[in-house]
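Quick question about two entries, pasted in order.
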Amino acid sequence: MTTSFLAALQALLDPAGILTDETALAGYCLDQRRRYRGQALAVARPRSCEEVAAVVRLCAEHGVPIVPQGGNTGNCGAATPDESGSALILSLERMNRILEVDADNNTITVETGVILADAQAAARAAGRLLAADWAAAASCQIGGALAVNAGGVNVLRYGNMREQTLGLEVVLASGEIWGGLRALRKDNTGYDLKQLFIGAEGTLGIITRAVLRLFPLPTAQALALVAFPDPDAALALLRDLQGRVGDRVTSFELIGQPCLELLAKHFPQLPQPFSPAPQWLALIELSDCGDSAELSDKLIEALAESEIEDAVLARNAAESEALWRLREEIAEAQRREGVSIKHDISLPVSRVPAFLAECGPKLQAEFPDAQIVAFGHLGDGNLHYNVFRADKSQAAYQAEAAINAIVYGCVTQLGGSISAEHGIGQLKVDALTQYRSKLELDLMRGIKQLLDPQNLMNPGKVLRF
């Protein structure tokens, strides 16, 4: 069967459209955290939606599982095949055309293999902002961002990928093409089907094109790195700023002291604005169309009336870039440090300080060597809450279940979620069954069964059957 399937696949695609060499496959079969390593029959690299549909129909005919893959920058193993070697990786990397920038309609239409940074640049060239933004922008693809409903640093003002998406084109498990590629802000013609596929991690269909919202390109910014005694003081400043300037608060990024220690160790060339390092920092950005001086004045006024310990304001673009690098390199600094138990959690914004106050002592009572590296998007309640131990090798994963139980227990008690913007993938499949109700899981399985009755679309991810 494998020989006949591969022969049929080769007939569908051009010579560069299929990879079977073991060396060529290796990078596609390993996730970016180097935690999940699988095997695959081949990698298919179609150039169009029609080719994707033809490949999917062939897989359905032969019963071959499909693992959709974008930039392979995910954190939960959603784009990595299992070890059976029975699956086909379907890479969207060659579907990388920007199809239209409609400045009057404030939309951009792209194939989903487009790199996020390239889409941002195309929007910027038209005087518009594509608000989706995070540290992996130079390597992640639009399709992967949609697949996990990615968030990033601008969610506070602009929302997750769900809020930034108007229309999709999707290849279903049957090989049919759903043409929902509409550039409309109002379309009340029944169920909003696109929302089924955003955040589904390729388990319901393969997103091939998307229409995304654009916004006026901000001409005014004010940026400050602010030191706080505790998260409560940071939250108080967030409330005050939103009262003063509304949705011009674009980003409010909370950073714990251990993050600064890792940055100083692994990125000594980056600025260290405060000595000694404070317990908590927030990187705060205001943006709008208009005058930067006005925004800076508003920010300075709020800082002057808040319980802060110190602050540094960026005076120009170079200083802004340097301060943003402090935030953006935290993940890489952690990777260089070694293995940590990672959590991408969300809480009601008002309960973030309570979580930080309660969870840390519980962890350290059970694991005295635990070092907590916490940072994230305070403005939308999303924390990246990571736990290092003295042994930073792969052996650290032996305590993962016990650590997760403490963290997720605190999250659940405070009305939060075990996954905010990184998805479920392979990593949290079992956890999902513990923290979502039976009814919710049954509804999700019903949708999966309806759209993918053979369970060929990214099996083993999100839901377990």
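Here is the second entry:
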Amino acid sequence: MSPIATVDTATLPHPDNGIKKTTDKELTPMDRAVRGNKQGALSLEDINDFDGDVHEQRKVLKEHLAGAFQFWGKKGYGEGSAGPITAMDPVQPDHYWINPFGVHFSDITASKLVLVGPNGYVAEGGAQLPINEAGFLIHSAVHRARPDAVAVAHCHSPYGKAWSVFGMPIDTLTQDACLFFENLVVYNNFGGIVLAAEEGNRIARALGPTAKAGILQNHGLMTVGTTIFECLYYFEFLERQCQVQLLVEAAVSDGLQKTFVRDEDARNTARTTQYWENPHRAMLTEYIRLVAEDPSFLS
């Protein structure tokens, strides 16, 4: 199989939807996860780099972001005005895109997305609609603290919200849970609905410099990613693992014993599952299905 070149993310502050490939021939974890024909003539399609066209990159980023909300809508995560996903803008890197206040996830389209400026207010260039104050305070703090976080996701999904009341991380009980091995934090200081900048800053500090996922005690889940799809995949898998954890805890109460994945095995598995391209491509399949079902959200 022809190898997919590795990515130097240090030089790509905003790689979402447009990863520029290097010429390094070393196999990546994505290469090891895919097998082609014996002649090595099959490989995954490269991720578009747009040839430096940031306006085209912005267009596709908005389509992907709208698709992420459509996915959440199908999952039933909508709860009124709660839950933003934000994505840094490739044209103006100190701006980011967010969903408007009070619009159901299933009704979000690319044209309804709001552009937020560095001053924290709605900017020209996107929909002129109000945004969620708490969402702004949390997400703006995370984007400032984590320049690698092209996308940040948070909502009050049912299983994540249920597990968050324990203020504990999930256990490494399954192969899927290895995605979060040494890659998950818990924020134990619930301070009520976030209407002050300092609470957002505390959440950002708790997330730390590298973790892709967090459990906010008595609140819900938060994930970040170098692409929208990586971020969304982390969120969905953390939600599922919270569900698994709740099921396991119920079974343990009936006398069954847990079997944990050994740290060495979890770490080895994480080297593949945590590589950005694996979750990105996995969620891309969901996006393709959404577009096939109803492409109207792209406009």
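Reply: Residues 228-252 form the longest helix (25 residues). Confidence is low (pLDDT under 50) at residues 1-24. Hope that helps.
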